[in-house]
Amino acid sequence: MTPSAPQQISGGQAAVEALKAEGVDHVFGLIGSATMEMFDALYDAPDIRFIGVRDERTGTHMADGFARASGRTGVILAGQNGPGSTNLVTGLAQAAAAYSPVLSIAGMLSTEHVYRDAFQEVDQQALFTPVTKKTWTVTKANRIPEMFREAFRVAMSPRRGPVQLNLPRDVLSEQIEMPAMQTPDQYRVMQNPAPATDAIAEAAKLLVNAKRPVIITGGGIKNSRGHAAAIALAEALNAPIVLAPGHGDALPCDQPLNAGQMGPRGNPVASRLAKEADVILALGTRLGFNSTFYSYDNINRDASIIQVELEPTAIGRYFPVTLGIWGDAIAAAATLLPHVKAMQFKAEIAAWTEGFQQDRHEWLAERDANADIDTIPIQPSGLFHHLRQIMPDDAAYTMDAGTLCLQATDAMNYKTPPSLFTPLDFGLVGFSFACGLGVKLAMPDRPVISMMGDGGFGMTISELSTAVEYGINTVTLVMNNGSWGAEKAYQRDFFNGRYIGADIASPAFDKAAELYGATGFRVERLTDLADAVNAALNAGKPAVVDIQVDPAALYSFRRDSFKHRGG
Length: 567
Description:
Elements: E1 8-10, H1 11-21, E2 26-30, H2 36-43, E3 49-52, H3 56-70, E4 74-78, H4 83-86, H5 89-97, E5 102-108, H6 124-128, E6 134-137, H7 144-156, E7 163-168, H8 169-173, E8 175-177, H9 197-208, E9 213-217, H10 219-222, H11 227-237, E10 241-243, E11 258-261, H12 268-276, E12 279-283, H13 289-292, E13 304-309, E14 323-326, H14 329-341, H15 347-369, H16 380-390, E15 396-399, H17 403-409, E16 420-421, H18 432-442, E17 448-453, H19 454-460, H20 464-469, E18 475-480, H21 485-494, H22 509-515, E19 519-523, H23 529-537, E20 543-548
Parallel strand pairs: 2-3, 2-4, 4-5, 5-7, 6-7, 9-10, 9-12, 10-11, 12-13, 13-14, 15-16, 15-17, 17-18, 18-20, 19-20
Antiparallel strand pairs: 1-8
Helix pairs in contact: 1-2, 1-7, 3-5, 3-18, 9-14, 11-14, 12-15, 16-23
């Protein structure tokens, strides 16, 4: 009997087989001729749901949101080289700032056309290198499985982040023998390094001798879903937990030791704790820009800092540390726990923690009491007050940058980790809605609320078509103040009200939503908010709530940037 010839597949088919081997079940993308072999192969891959987007940038935000919510790699496929590829850059820079594992795949010119000023030619290797952990250009179809393995490995290795694969047209069309695909457990380390025993013992001594201990948590706890380990350690120490901005959902908001988010954009109680602590356990946080502005104005200069980080180059980068521990934050917390459980009751710590809890209780009560709940136009404090009463306990929130979203980030209740997805250090406007679609696909059973300003939603409203087409039922709250609010605040506070480009005109977003096939609501009074939001949550389709917010309710967050103007 004549043996059958080896099965021949295209490079595009090999790429899809590599995605299958990784267990990828969603691919976001925009079709184009450069990667048509991949799209054709996806047609025969029923286990991978393709989500066709309207713009590569917003598709990357969806992949980013999916990655953060699921803990797996999000995948974006740009069908076209040239402009299709350049559209990815902003989204990948955003994912890099969030240490979000995103695999970006882009078509590329045939290799024989490179360096000939060909149609839609751009140096994609150079283009993506600054905004990814690593960028590869595949040279032969038989290397596609290898390159995909490497891409997933790098994206998921600490610290996680986006990667880029460029696939030339001739590589995707090339025929190769069907390779044997490896599964992730065959080529990738699946666990993080444990901290050294002697370092844990030294950290325990510092914590046991502390009088005003504070644990600061960030992405290392949030992204690993390590809140139980952090809480157990905090309870054993009887120490407050302070959260890095943008990571306010690292543990449930109603946990008694949760102080909320610190720093210039945080709340006064958490910020005070960071400035008064004598020992700080930085558990999976860089103590970076949003937390500290790199200044001892926001953290005690005299505190002993114990910093636990997976990325060794992050240890002591912004502030000198007493002890740096390279390792997994969850493992460090769990290993420290028996050491500190044996510590003697200390009256100083009890007084420190009880004082913080009283201050936090009073601050929360004052926040509610001072909320402008009956005014027209709607004030942000009243809006956030009402939303806290309305939203389900398992709601997840995505945020934009901008003055209203920055105020909202520490104002909402995050009861079910993970619940908060923000632009973090990239500060991107136009992120929230698209990110929310990815989050919803990763967590379909949870309500997903995307909060953004009118300017940001105007950038991305076209993705309502995507949401409607694929039944991705999120609720978008557009806090509409008719302006680029943060910039207008700076022009008001530091440039004598010399407004230029600050005011914007938008359509009625509730009506626009209906034209896309979604559901729209308009809210001008807070008394109408609950009915609108509840109807949006139960609409059975994507919903947009256009909330008219006072245009004068602006806040300058980056006052440090304008010190030269008397700020």
